[in-house]
Amino acid sequence: MKSKLWIVIFLCFLLLATNASANDDSSPIDQLNALSDEALQLTKSQRYEDAKKILETFSDKFSSVTIKESTFTMDELRIVTIAHNEAVEATTNVSMNPDERINRVTKFRLVIDAISSTKHPLWTKMEEPILAIFDDVKEAAFNGDQEAFHKSLNSFLSLYEVINPSMKLDVSPERFQKLDTRINFIDHYRQDILTQQNSMKELLILETDLQSIFDLETDETDPSLWWVIISTGSIIIVTLSYVGWRKYVGEKEKRKNRSR
């Protein structure tokens, strides 16, 4: 229930935060971003046929942009394609419940925003609901409340599934894989988490990983770039030291010559 409430709150934020428009003056990626948002708003209103048409328009435009410009990496193309297919299914599968439909189109919306945003992508706004629900998971585990634990963990996994693809686009592969592996471990061995005291430490470690994953500033510098910075800085320091030493020796020689 809490996961549904947080998703509703987050969708309201999306409605207020987005100001993208698909006019002729905007860039192709901005137009794609606007289309993804429009599809989400229509899905929320249960206008599934209209949302499907917008997704078809998105597909045509995305293909055109991909052919004309080498804007997207292979990973981005793969993630967008999967998210788009899931969103289309959400608008056409009449047996799917409305909440799941919204979740899938929201996932697609966040993926497109992650590609178009250079700073503060929308998926990072999910930090508070993710951590709030995880607090419920942790509390239920520590209290040994099996029913509450499974319910809270399922809610957490549901929210995590919504932001997983967009997170993957922005977070380094090493950090993402570490977080994803730990979450899958806890899901797979959920019964052990309840019965084994040492296993509960996994929850505390995961909480730390979750808190750090939303801070994009600490992670996104390429290690090779750090090597260039360090090596270049070292060369500059050595050069300046050598120049200073030569200057010192020259001044010392001048003083000796004057004393003679």
From TrEMBL:
Keyword terms, alphabetized: Membrane, Signal, Transmembrane, Transmembrane helix
Secretion signal, residue range per the UniProt entry: 1-22
Keyword Transmembrane (UniProt): yes
Transmembrane domains' residue ranges: 225-245
Pfam families, A to Z: Spore_YpjB
Keyword Ligase included in the entry's annotation: no
Record's protein name: Sporulation protein YpjB
